[in-house]
Amino acid sequence: MEAVFFITPGLVNAHFHPSQQLNRALGIGLGHDKQMDLLHATDQIKDPKDSTLLSYIAVLEGLKAGTTCFYSAGSNIDTQFEVYKTLGVRVACALIPKDIASDDKHHSIRAKTWQTNERLEKAEFLHNSFHTELVRVHFGAVNVRYASDELILGMIDLAHKYNVHFQMHAAESMEYVQNVRN
Ligand SMILES: [Zn+2]
Q1: Ligand 1 mean position to 163 CA, how many Å?
Q2: What is the CA(124)–ligand 1 centre distance, in A?
Q3: Which residue from 52, 78, 149, 158 has the least number of CB within 10 angstroms?
């Protein structure tokens, strides 16, 4: 009997923040820094169930658009594992925390700052709890501006230990680029 199936090309979303996806229309026309402030302000009023629900919507939208493989980076990837497992989606995830506070910003528009060792332990726990062939759990840090050397190097050590990759934003705005140059 003739096999009945199609082979179609798939798209790879190489950098995805599913629980923030529905916020992407915020602050249209504002500069990137102000958009990030709005994003972090809305993150502060989401509870974990909101993040899971928003992730379902974003992943379904991605699948509908033809995405067959996702790379999810974020500070709350633990709210997304249920989504990937339920939908059977191929994905790699990296917890990308910050451990240096952005003191120049009001607390209402800041991303959360974490304790370095606590995040390293959390990232290793997430890897040991959720890493599979289909849902890969990598290691990461937010960026060079708001992550200490200890956090970045600790996450890279964990990536080597478990033979997975390390993920970090190179720069999220011109301000960050300037900070690296300085
Ligand atoms: Zn990002």
Answers
A1: 22
A2: 21
A3: 149
Distance 150 CA to ligand 1 centre (A): 21
Rounded to the nearest angstrom, the distance between the alpha carbon of 7 and the centre of ligand 1 is 31
Cα(146) to centroid(ligand 1), Å:
13
- CATH number for the domain harbouring residue 156: 3.20.20.140
The domain of 114 spans 12-181
What are the tens digits of pLDDT across the range 49-83?
999 999 999 999 999 999 999 999 998 899 999 99
pTM over 0.85: yes
Domain membership of residue 79 (yes or no) is yes
Q: Three-state SS for 140? A: strand
Given a cut of 90, whether residue 6 has pLDDT beyond it is no
Domain annotation covers residue 4: no
Written as one string, the DSSP assignment of 77-127 is GGGTHHHHHHHT-EEEEEE--B-S--TTS-GGGPPPB--HHHHHHHHHHHH
CB 113 within 8 A of CB 99: yes
CA of 170 to the centre of ligand 1 (A): 9
The tally of domains found in the chain comes to: 1
**CA of 32 relative to ligand 1 center, distance in Å:** 12
Provide, rounded to the nearest whole percent, the portion of the chain with pLDDT above 70: 98
